Fold:
Amino acid sequence: MKSALFGSVAGEGKGTSIRDSLKEVSESGEFKRKESAWRNWISKEDGAQFPPEAGRYHLYVAYACPWAHRTLMVRALKGLEDAISVTVVHPIWRKTKSDADDHRGWVFGSPDGGTFKNTEGLGGPFPMMFPGNEPEPTFGSNSIRGLYERSGDTDGKYTVPILWDKHTNTIVSNESSEIIRMLNSEFDAFAKSSLDLYPEGKRVAIDEANEWIYPNINNGVYRCGFATSQSAYDNAIDELTTSFDRVDKILQNQRFIASDDKVTEADIRLFATLLRFDEVYTVYFKTNSRSVATTPSILNYCREIFALPVVAETCNMEQIKAHYYCSHTELNKWSIIPRGAEFMKLLKQPITDHESD
Structure:
C-alpha cells in the first residue's frame, strides 16, 4: 500500500521522511512527483475490505488543490453529496507541528478568529477561516498531517484529497485519479445522477488522453514551477506548450477532449488545471508561453465544463490564488497575490455554438 520513501525532514515515526512537493526535485533540477502512498479501493465486489456505503466515507479536500478539485467535481456531478461528506481545509499552508519540525502543509479552519502570517512570519494578515473552511469534524485534528499520523502513515507526504473510512478510522486512498473512478462507478446505488464519466465504449480514448495530459499538462505546470535548473524548466515548458497546442487542435474539431458528445473523466482532469492556468500558473509557474484566455477553443471548452450542473460551486478562485501565492515562501516571500484579469468573468460568458464555428 505504501510507496518507497525518500527524504527531507526526519519524521517522528521510524523510517518516515516528512516532506512537501517542493522537496521532490532531482539533482538535475527536475520536479519528480512521487506516487501516492495510499491506494486501497472501494468495491462493490463481495467481501471487499471497503464496500460502498452511504455515510461511511468522508472526503478531505482543498478548493485550492487541482487534484482534490477533481474529486469535488465528480462527487457533485454524480450527486453524491448526501452519501459522502466533505471537509474543506484552509487554503494557505501553515506549520503543522512547530514543536517537532518545520513541515508546512494543509491545516483546518479555526472558528476562533484572529489572523496569521505566512510560514516566514511575513505577508498577510490572513484569516483563520475562508468561507467554506471548517474544523476537522471527527478528531479535532489541527492538520491533515494529524489524520495521516492517526492512520499509521510512514510515507511522510501529507496531501489532499483523502478518502477516509469513518468505520475503521483510516485512509482508504489519497490518489485522486483512483478516487474519482471509485466515485464514478462504485456508488451508483446512492448517486442522484446516472452520469458515467468512464463509459466502457470510450475508455480507450479516455486513457489515451490521460496518458499525455497528466505528465505534460496536469503535472507539467508543476514541472515548470518547481524546476530548479534552466534545462529542467526548458524541457518542461516545451512539453507543456506542445501539449497545450495539441489540446487546442483537438477542441477545434470536437466538443470534449476524449469525445465529441459526452463529458468524461478526461475533461474533469483537464479542466482542473485549465481553471488555474491563467490566474496562477502563467505567473507563478512561468507557463506564460500560452494562455487559456487567448485560445478560443480552450476558453470555450472551459466555459462548457464550468456550466455543467454544480461544477461552478466547486470552483473557488479566491482560495486557489491564496494557496499558491501564500504557501510557498521560497517562491513568493511576501505572499503578494496578483490581481489577475478576472478569468472567472470570462468563464461566465456565453458558450459558442460548435455548429456555428
Observations:
- Confidence is low (pLDDT under 50) at residues 1-15.
